[in-house]
Specification:
Number of helices: 4
Mean pLDDT: 75
CATH superfamily: Response regulator
CATH topology: Rossmann fold
Distance between the termini: 26 Å
Structural class: alpha/beta
Order of helices and strands: EHEHEHEHEE
Number of domains: 1
Shape: globular
CATH class: Alpha Beta
Radius of gyration: 18 Å
Strand content: 15-25%
Helix content: 25-40%
Largest sheet: 4 strands, parallel
CATH architecture: 3-Layer(aba) Sandwich
Strand order of the largest sheet: 2-1-3-4
Length: about 140
């Protein structure tokens, strides 16, 4: 039996190319330390620079100071304090062209739909697809 790489063998699988990553800076906003830590590990593994904020108030303070360097904001929509919706509104007042990816466990209705009305959407990549996180550009693998 011939393997996928032209040699003989059983169980050889094609190796999938991993997304290359980027050098952009991402502001990750979430009130759960676990998510901030996980985001830190994953995004830095793909060469992104990461700034974290534990709430909307901190995110706004960081963004005001570093908006020229921030290429993407990943914003938890349901947070304590100001919350994601109000934070999103204020971020877009600071910079109407800010790229914001809303993270929510909720369906696209109710409070999440209101946020989507304020911004454009990005669908989750399908199997065998990736995307340029900061450019919102899909790339087929």
């Amino acid at each position: 039996m011939q393997g996928s790489e032209g040699g003989h063998g059983i169980g050889r699988a094609k190796r999938k190319k991993m997304p290359v990553g980027g050098t952009e800076t991402i502001l990750l906003v979430d009130d759960e330390d676990f998510i901030l830590d996980l985001g830190d590990q994953i995004l830095k593994k793909f060469s992104y620079k990461l700034i974290t904020a534990p709430d909307g108030e901190s995110a706004l303070e960081v963004y005001r100071k570093k908006k020229e360097k921030v290429n993407l904001i990943i914003l938890d929509f349901i947070m304590s304090g100001m919350g994601g919706r109000k934070c999103l509104e204020k971020l877009l007042k600071i910079n109407p062209r800010a790229r914001v990816l809303i993270a929510s466990g909720y369906s696209v209705s109710g409070p999440t739909k209101e946020a989507l009305d304020l911004s454009s959407t990005l669908n989750r990549p399908q199997k065998n697809e990736s995307f340029d996180l900061c450019g919102f550009t899909k790339v087929n693998l």
